[in-house]
Design a protein that fits this description.
Layout lengths: L3 H18 L4 H16 L3 E9 L2 E8 L10 E3 L3 H9 L3 E3 L21 E9 L2 E10 L7 H19 L18 E4 L1 E4 L2 E8 L14 H25 L5 H14 L2 H12 L4 H17 L4 H22 L13 E5 L4 H7 L5 E4 L7 H8 L4 E3 L4 H4 L5 E5 L4 E4 L3 H23 L5 E2 L5 E8 L6 H6 L3 E6 L1 H5 L7 H15 L3 E5 L27 H6 L1 H15 L4 E8 L2 H20 L8 E7 L9 H6 L2 E4 L1 H8 L7 H4 L7 H16 L3 E4 L7 H10 L3 E4 L1 H13 L2 H13 L6 H9 L2
Parallel strand pairs: 9-10, 10-11, 11-12, 16-17, 16-23, 17-18, 18-19, 19-20, 20-21, 21-22
Antiparallel strand pairs: 1-2, 1-6, 2-3, 4-5, 5-6, 7-14, 8-12, 9-13, 13-14, 15-16
The structure holds phosphoenolpyruvate and magnesium ion.
Length: 746
């Protein structure tokens, strides 16, 4: 027998849907809907509040409250009971509304005579659209069935809102996804871009939230759930060789996909009249709202699992794949929760910008975005909920801001900024062929950092003197398996071909820490940045290092070759790595293959210990490159990936500079060439300070070469050195103020 409340609910949902099909404006629809709900739920009042802007809710329709209050009554997010429902994404059910904490009485509505209040969020997959409220005179709490029924109704309203059913001009009800929204994220890669949104994973559109035949809808759902379970089982079979953590994720997926509670709840939603798709979205939205309140990282991780599974299920139900056949818009800006380096490379330079909800400064995607010189903003929370394909978007990689659907004044100011940057770039381009020589006649070699073939055109374009750091791990990170020696040799050859006469300093594989190869068993280490990484892996597992050294020697085809080893902490590590390279060189020679006409072997100085190594170490190195990102992290004991502590310590702190001076002096005494290749080398104030202290070679991202060269050519490094030493003598903790002041006066 069909439950009466189920059949009532289905009748109501069908009537709601019919309001979509009938003519009339948005307001008319909203009015009819509130009347239908109040009648069906036997309440005195039914009201719909929608967001007027992201912070303000507006009473858009009511049955039972004063009609004059419609479009007049507004509340801020979090204000009153309605604002509380909107903010928390959770229902409020009370028999005595005025006694609830945060209750706000709005006299214009005439609601004082209604004691009971039930409000549920109108939300769709984490996106808050408004609040649906029913009220009655008598002081009683609504039953669980009534609450559940109202949530189902709210789900249909959410889908109708998405479909634009309540969008109307005359009453100022803005459509969703129309407001300008600004996101404050963090810088992943500097630069500014204007373009149009391209969602990496497009939103699934549910065109029919109401199911006419619950049995048929349940059958569709069951079939989709079985396909989903089969997909996950297949993934698990394929995961036999995967590491523990990846397997654990899949096991968690499996548990969720087989969860009876999940499937049962969706079945109940269908019984109340939702279509299978809307039922999936309803459960996703409800669980999302609950999990979002949690600060537990484990639970938040489950939120991702739930989203992934729900999206898969929706795709199975709607037949909409991630490839919708849509064309990239003009000036595409990729918007995604996260993206892998290989996928980002596939898009390549077509993209004008990238905005991610997750990611980190050192993530692989950030490294690729940097290599491609595409502005990147990370930590733009919830942008995938807000953005629609084709929306206008401004990416400010310098500040870490994103403006979605901006006001024209904001867009105009932004265009001015882009134009100014273009003027500056033009000025820098004019310097391309000129040396970075200061007014006292000292010349600094400006090199660029690279790691992909895609970087190489910048070698000519930026006017770099060579590649000071070629991060070879990027080739390993963007693949699904260890590259073959022949592939690597061909790649290194192409890099050297492209560089021509200019020098390339290849750094051997620097994996571990944040750089985890997808096909390598990750280590369960409490402190990966200080763990088994870089040369430590190379020496303990010499097979890959040897293969890479052979590939480098072969790629050189008899030309001069420079190789450096990452993260050397003690001289014996360097000596062992150097011996391995020399051994491979001799082996190549004994096989009759050409060997480099000149072989320069260097170490990266990234741990403070190496600054105190004996002279014999410095003598044994042809060159030393300071990896400032790691060195600074260990000098100040501040994680380079942790935004909270990263910026706390100044590179121009006199303690750090005193340490750099020590390294400079030791290299001078031992005739060891010295360069600096961390990110700081590309920051003009830092770069000039390093040059003034005596570092003669700086390696940076290509876009920084112009600005740094421009300043060096206007500065007198002797004068600057003098000012720095003087400030230090005066006891300054940082020399930033004096250097900034000096440069501002140029
Ligand atoms: C550094 O640590 O400064 C460096 C250049 O190496 P990476 O950033 O690749 O760790
Ligand atoms: Mg490093």
């Amino acid at each position: 027998m069909v439950d009466r409340s189920e059949s009532d609910s289905r009748t109501l949902l069908r009537r709601l849907r019919d309001t979509l099909a009938t003519g009339g404006g948005a307001q008319d629809r909203l009015d009819r809907i509130t009347a239908l709900i109040a009648d069906s739920m036997r309440t005195h009042v039914c009201s719909i509040y929608l967001f007027r802007d992201p912070e303000t809710l507006e009473l858009c329709a009511t049955e039972g409250l004063n009609r004059e209050a419609v479009h007049q009554t507004r509340m801020r997010l979090g204000e009153g009971l309605v604002g509380r429902v909107a903010r928390s994404g959770q229902p409020v059910n009370t028999g005595n509304a005025p006694s609830e904490p945060g209750f706000r009485y709005m006299p214009e509505t005439g609601e004082e005579i209604y004691s009971s209040f039930l409000g549920v969020p109108i939300q769709r997959v984490g996106e808050r659209l408004g609040v649906l409220v029913v009220q009655s005179r008598e002081a009683r709490e609504f039953s669980d069935d009534e609450l559940y029924g109202l949530e189902v109704v709210a789900m249909v309203l959410a889908e109708m809102t998405e479909l634009g059913a309540f969008t109307g001009e005359q009453n100022g009800i803005g459509a969703t996804h129309r407001f300008p929204v600004m996101f404050r994220g963090a810088t992943g890669q500097e630069g500014a871009a204007e373009g149009h949104v391209w969602l990496h994973e497009p939103r699934v559109v549910v065109t029919n939230p109401v199911g006419d035949d619950p049995e048929a809808e349940k059958a569709r759902l069951e079939q989709a759930v079985s396909s989903l379970q089969a997909q996950i089982d297949d993934m698990l079979i394929g995961a036999a060789q995967m590491d523990k953590e990846q397997r654990q994720v899949l096991e968690a997926y499996k548990m969720l996909a087989h969860s009876r509670g999940w499937v049962r709840r969706m079945g109940e939603d269908i019984a109340l009249g939702l279509s299978a798709e809307a039922a999936v979205e309803k459960e996703q939205s409800t669980a999302r709202a609950r999990l979002e309140l949690s600060t537990d990282p484990y639970l938040r991780e489950r939120l991702h699992d739930l989203d992934d599974l729900s999206n898969r299920l929706l795709r199975l139900l709607t037949g909409q794949g991630s490839d919708t056949g849509a064309e990239l818009p003009l000036n595409p800006v990729l918007v995604a929760r996260n993206i892998g380096p290989a996928e980002l490379l596939d898009y390549g330079r077509k993209l004008k910008g990238v905005v991610l909800e997750e990611g980190s400064v050192g993530s692989h995607a950030a490294i690729v975005a940097r290599a491609l010189a595409i502005p990147l903003v990370i930590h733009a929370t919830r942008i995938t909920m807000e953005a629609l394909n084709g929306d206008q978007i401004l990416v400010d990689g310098d500040q870490g801001f994103v403006h979605l659907r901006p006001e024209e004044t904001v867009a105009a100011a932004f265009r001015d900024k882009i134009a100014m940057q273009a003027v500056a770039q033009k000025r820098y381009a004019d310097l391309r062929e000129l040396p970075a020589t200061d007014l006292s006649g000292q010349t600094i070699s400006l090199m660029m950092n690279a790691g992909l073939m895609a970087d190489l055109p910048s070698l000519q374009g930026s006017g770099a003197d060579g590649v000071g750091l070629f991060r070879t791990e990027l080739q390993f990170l963007i693949r699904t398996r260890v590259p073959r020696r022949s592939e690597l040799a061909a790649l290194y050859k192409r890099v050297m071909d492209a560089a021509g006469e200019k020098r390339v300093q290849f750094r051997t594989l620097d994996i571990g820490s944040d750089k985890v190869l997808p096909y390598m068993k990750p280590q369960d280490e409490p402190n990966p940045a200080m763990g088994w990484r870089a040369i430590r892996v190379g020496l303990d597992k010499p097979g890959v290092l040897r293969m890479q050294l052979q590939a480098l020697l072969r790629g050189a085809e008899g030309r001069p070759l420079s190789v450096m080893f990452p993260f050397i902490a003690t001289p014996d590590e360097f000596h062992a790595a150097k011996a391995s390279l020399l051994h491979e060189r001799d082996r190549e020679a004994s096989l009759g293959r050409p060997v480099p006409s000149e072989l320069k072997i260097g170490a990266m100085l990234e741990t403070p210990s190496l600054g105190f190594a004996p002279d014999s170490f410095f003598e044994a190195c042809d060159f030393i490159s300071i990896g400032g990102n790691d060195l600074k992290q260990f000098f100040f004991a501040a994680d380079r990936e942790n935004e909270r502590v990263r910026r706390r310590y100044d590179t121009l702190d006199t303690a750090f500079l005193t340490f750099l001076e020590r390294i400079i002096a030791r290299c001078e005494v031992n005739h060891t060439a010295l360069s600096f290749c961390g990110e700081d080398a590309g920051r003009p104030i830092e770069a000039l300070t390093f040059a003034a202290l005596g570092i003669r070679s700086l390696s940076m991202r290509p876009a920084s070469i112009g600005p740094v060269k421009h300043l060096i050519r206007r500065a007198n490094l002797d004068d600057l050195r003098h000012l720095i030493l003087e400030a230090r003598k005066q006891g300054a903790q940082s020399v930033r103020p004096v250097v900034t002041h000096y440069l501002a006066g140029l």
